[in-house]
Structures are given as C-alpha cells and as structure tokens.
Amino acid sequence: MTPWSPMFLRIARRELRGGLKGFRIFLACLALGVAAIAAVGSVREAIEAGLTREGAVILGGNAEMSFTYRFADPDERAFMEGIASRVSETVDFRSMVVIDRDGTLERGLTQVRGVDSAYPLYGHVTLDPAIPLERALATTDRPGAVMDPVLIDRLALRIGDIFRLGTQEFELRAAMLTEPDGASGGFGLGPRTIVTLDGLSGSNLLAPGTLYETQYRLALPPGRDLQTAETEARARFEDSGMRWRDSRNGAPGMQEFIERIGAFLVLVGLAGLAVGGVGISSAVRAYLEGKIETIATLKTLGAESRTIFAAYFAQIGLLTLVGLALGLTLGALLPLALSPIIAAQLPVPIAFAIYPGPLAEAALYGALTALIFTLWPLARTEQVRAAALFRDASGPQRAWPRPIWTATILGLSVVLVGLATWLSGISRLAMGTAAGIIGSLLLLTLSALAIRALSRRLSRARALRGRTALRTALGAVGGPGSEATSVVLSLGLGLAVLAAVGQIDANLRAAIQRDLPTVAPSYFFVDIQPDQLQPFLDRVTNDPAVSRVDTAPMLRGVITRINGARARDVAGDHWVIQGDRGVTYTTTAPPPEEITQGQWWPDDYAGPPLAAFAAEEAAEIGLTIGDRLTINILGRDIEAEIAALRDVRFENAGIGFVLTLSQNALAGAPHTHIATVYAEEQAEAAILRDVAGDAPNITAIRVRDALDRVADALRSLAAATSYGAAATLLTGFIVLIGAAAAGERGRVFEAAVMKTLGASRAGILGSFALRSAILGAAAGIVAICAGALGGWAVMTFVMDSTYRFEPVSAVAIILGGALATLLSGLAFAWRPLATRPARVLRARD
Predict the structure, then answer these.
(1) Measured distance CA(155)–CA(107) in Å, rounded
(2) Could you identify which of 88, 120, 516, 768 might form a hypothetical disulfide with 217, taking C-beta atoms 3.0 to 4.6 angstroms apart as the criterion?
(3) 119 and 200 share a domain?
(4) Number of domains observed in the structure of the chain
(5) Distance in angstroms between the alpha carbons of the first and the last residue of the chain
(6) Closest CA to 359 of 324, 384, 316
(7) Helix boundaries (H) for 459-483
(8) What percent of the chain has pLDDT over 90?
(9) Which residues form a coiled coil (predicted)?
(10) Is the peptide bond preceding residue 208 cis, with omega within 30 degrees of 0?
C-alpha cells in the first residue's frame, strides 16, 4: 500500500465526519493571523494605488522642477515652456501671521504658498464660502488670502478680517477645506495660507538670502515620456540646484512613510501568525493525542506509518485551506467595511478594492506557518506503536521526530524568513523581527522547561508542607502532561510583542518630555537679515530671562559632486545629498573637542575654499580628509576640500550643520542668519512680540510646538503598532483558551482523584487557580524580558536613541498575563469540579 493510494484519502474523509470540534482553535488562529496580514497589505496597496492614480493632482502637475533661494532663470523657464503645455509658478516658505487687535498684536506660524493665475493645474481648492480661488485671492483694497481652518480657529479670525504677512496687509476671504497638492509638501510646521505672488511683492518676505523654495508645476502634453523629460532636465540643470519630481511619486515622503508603516505592521502580523502557529501546533497535537487509539488500531490492521501520516496530513491540509479562505475573506472585506474611517484618517487618496497581491502574500505566509507548525506533531504519529492499544495511551509522545522532519521544518522556516525579508522591503527590520521571534520562542521554550523543573522541585519542598493547594498546583505545572509550554509560548509571545511596543512608546514619550525642558531652545528665529542681527542680539541678550543665544549664518546648498563624480553615484540615497541642505560659515574655530579628525583653518584664512563635515555622516558616506565636494549655492558651484570632521549633535534641537565652509568661500553670497534662544517659558511671548514688531520679516518657530507635532506623529505610529500588537495578543488569548480546553480532560481525571482523596471543591478550585496564575505570571515575566530586549534594540538601532526600562507597563503586562490565564483556566474548571469521581475512575479501568 503506497501513501498516495485511495486508502489514505478514505481514512481522512472518515475522520472528518466527526466535525471540526478539535480544530476550532486551529481555524481561529490561522484565520486571524492571515486576516491581519491581508488587511494591512490591502490598505497599503489601496494607498499606493490612490497615490499612483492621483499622482498628478497630489503633485500639482505631471512634473515639478524646484529651486531654493531663487526663481528659475530665463534658460530654465524656456526649457519648461518648451516641454509643457502649461506651467504654474509657486513659492513656498514659512512666515508669521500678524493680527492687530486694538493695538495688541497676535501672531501665528504659517506655511505660505504664493501662487500664480495658473494654480492649480490639476484638482481644485475647496473653499468655505464656496467661491472661486481667483476671486478669493483677487486684489481689491488689498490682496486676498485663504487659510487653513486650524489657523483661523487658533487666531480667532473671521472672514473679512485683516492680517499681515511681513509688511503687506491681506484680507481673509475664505477657509481652505482642501488643498489638492497638500500631501506633496511633506512635513510642515504651520498650517497653510495661500496668497498670490503679486500680493507678496510688497511683503519684503522674499529678500535676497531669505529661505524660500520655488516650485514649477508642469502639465505635459499627452504622450510625453516622464523619464525622458527627467533625464533631459537633470542633464541640463541638476548641477545648478534644480530638483525634479513627477507624478510617478508625487508624495515621496508620504508614500515612503506609508510603505514603512505597512511593512512594519506586516512584520507585527507575522509575529501574530507565529503566536497562531503555536496554537496550530497545540491544536494538532491535542487532536492527534486523542487519536492515539485510532492510530494504534490502524497499525494493528496493517496500515503503514506513512499511510497514516498522509491521511492526517490531507485532513489538516484541507482544514488549512478552510482557515486560509476564512482569513483572506476577512482580510479583504475588513478594509472595505472600514474604508470611511481609514480614508478620514489619511491625507491622501485611497483606492479601496480587492487586491490579489496582498492576499496572495498573506496566503503564502499562512500556508508556510501552518505547514511548519503542523509537521512536528504529525511526524510524531510515526512513534505510535500498535501496543499503545493495550496500554494507557493518554500520555503524550515525547520523542523527537526523525531528522528528515526536523530538517524540513528548519528549511521551511528559512524560506518563510527569506520571503518576509524580500516582500517587506525593509530587510534589516525584517531580519531583526525574525530573529526576535525565533529568539523569543526559544527563550519562552527554555523558560517553560525551567518553570516546570522549578515547580517540580518546589512541590517537594518541606517549606510547603501543609499547603496542599499550592503544592498540587506546582506539581501539576511541573508534572507530565503539563500545559506550561503551551501557555508560556502562546501568551508569552503575544505579551512580548505588546511589551516591546509599550517600552518603545514609553521611551519615545520620555525622551521628548525629558529633553525638551533641559536641552531644547524656546525659539528658532530664521530669515534674520545681516543688518537686523545686531538689534536682534541687543534685544535677546539683554533679557535676564534669556540664558543662552546661538546664531549662525544660513544658506542652502546642494552637494552635486564628490571628488568630481556625481554625488548620487558616490553616496547613493543618503539623506545628506537628497535635496538641499543647510550650509554655514564661521570666522572662529569650534572647541577642540568637537573636531574629531583633521585641522580647522585659521581665523584669517584666505586660501582655496575649505570645508568641515559632520563626522557621523561622513563615515556613512565614506568621506575622508582631503576629499573634494562641489556645492551649488544660488546657482553657483563652490568646490571645497574637506579639512576637518566635527562632532555635530542634532538631538538637542539646537543649531547643527552637516556642512561648514570657510568664510572666504561664501564671500558676497546673499544670506540670512538663524538664531536659537533659550529662555524661561513666561518670557517667550514678550520676546516674540518685540522681535516681530521690530522686524516683521523674521519668522519665529516655537520649538515646543514643533516637537509636539513630532510627538503626535510618533503617537500615531505607536497607535498603529499597538493595534498590530493587540491582534497578536488576541491570537495569544485564543491559543490560551485552546490550551485550557485541551487540558480539560486531564483536569477532570485530576479532580476525580483529588476528590477521592478527600479534597474539597474549594481546595481543587484553588489549586487550579494557583496553577493558572503561576503560568500567567511566568509568561508575563519572560515576556517583559523579551519585550525589553526588543524595545532596547529598536530604540538603539532603529531610533538611534537611548533606552530606559519602563516599569509601569511591565507590571501591567505581568498582572494582565496572570489574570488572563487565571480567567481562562477557571472557565474550564467547572466541568472537572462537577464530574462525579466514580464515573471518571470507572471509565479509566
């Protein structure tokens, strides 16, 4: 008889006639894990499809050419008009909205966009009241403006009120409800205000050296190839500081953020699937242990081990398909059902539909997980002997399966990890997650074995004599047939994921709260003109509430070449060469401890341009002393030799420049200054009032507000990962319930023996409760260790921050684990307590 003869199918079919009673946990674990991965993947695919479909609207054109500190020159404008059917010119910068209320000035930070008559090329600006944009921005007595409702509410403005930007008055004509290209700008520090370019001409906000960005949106004729246009534009203008974007990736920051969050949540989903895998293995093992007599009977009748293996493999394979179908259905329909809620939370268009790609990925993960976790208990059916029919077959089989099965399981695990690494797109995090899951499973398994050994030893300790309930509970935890491994694995891994998320969230919040009052400045002041610097310093340095003031010249430049080669060819996608970066100069050398390599130039240096580069970023790019950089500033190329590497700290929210040039390199270049002011909180309003009153073009950025926006983004990230961790924990609870249900038969016999020996119901219930609490607390303690290790790894290697153990969430997780195990154990304790001992013991004769 071969294993693939009709016999194994007949056996499988007859076994399935008994229904799905033994496989409910199996199906629930598999379906829930697959549904979580499918749902996250479907939402990510819907966002990417929406960004692709609406790329031109999000960007504001089919393509965009942008410049810093300047408008396009005639040659650049001629090129744009030559390839585009329409061109829209806009300018983007930060400024202060100033309102005069009976002599009292109120201010608010805003992100200003100056537009021409062609704006927007695609999409529509929705206003309240519903008037055309050109009418809202038209100049009557004064230029018109539209504003984000958040800023209107913050400044208590009404339609028709007058406010100033710089030295120009504007009339608020409408609230801006939607901005079609709002997602393309990335992270902004203030709500949006839109005015016309002509209206800005009298504001004195676009003076030479002021930090602003011009954007030229291009509407390309049908059939115009974006790649060809990009190649031509880069070849002609990239070295002059031009940056190119097009509708193929209209909101790169948003798209990358969504991709990263989606990939990370898929990895969290894989952790949940691993928890479900423990439940799958437990369910299959419990089912097969109940079939030992059947297997022994089949072997007595001449069935070979491989025939029996094939029969149960086919049976479980069919149920796996059912679980996958349930999970995929739920994962596909859940995003559609929640689409209004999801769309309301995201500032990008989302094309909800059923996407086969994420479903196939989830099915692949689910099938591999089910196969990995079912092969082990299935392979052990070979160890069942026909003699088991004539012995007490209730005890579980403990021997390892044959090496071929162990090697197969390891090989499939490697395939699963490789697929997760490849498909997630974040290989480092994927490998770290896989290592964390495998390490956690190993730690939890070893901990379960240690808990069993310790409990067995304690149950015999003299100090516990007379404490029957506790000794019985410890003996059950450490004895044969203990459910310790299942409980610690299932609940522990779920709690470990939740603990890691809790530690990361607590450390991020603590870092912001810890660093802000002691390190961060009160304000960043930007766009300080050279002739305004001394009056500014006179105001802030003479204020007794100000403890420190730092200033630096400020320009923006693009690193275009490194040692004569294109910067991107040398540095790849490093953030320093992506777009323009802050550049400064200094007339004095920094403290010697800041210089890590090389030598600073003399204060009166007048030779060829020299540069100092941030040491950490230089090491990442591969720059060394003597390398030559070409930096484009205001359309002019400056080649400078790296003379020194310096330690630059960005985490304190102070002034930090990756690139510092010798003063003679920037002689005559228009520029402004930036300043940081460290002051007592009660003095901040007066400083802002005086500085802005004397120089309305100076923009003040309150650092606490900026950090609050970062904190909000981090809280959103933490919330998203918490949802993933909650799904993992839910799977762990299902597995826990399955383990408790699987152990009910053993507890019935145990309760019968204890009753026969004179134990009361209260004593038996106390023993069961103590057993559950011990296992839950143990799982929680091990989960805290694994979660703390995971939190440390993420904070150290991903967030590049310090880590501090947070005890409050740790205690909550330990108590939660003990309570969850206690409740699940008690839920399956009533039947053993109600069963008559004689009936149970007579059935075991």
Answers:
(1) 8
(2) 88
(3) yes
(4) 4
(5) 36
(6) 324
(7) 468-478
(8) 16
(9) none
(10) no
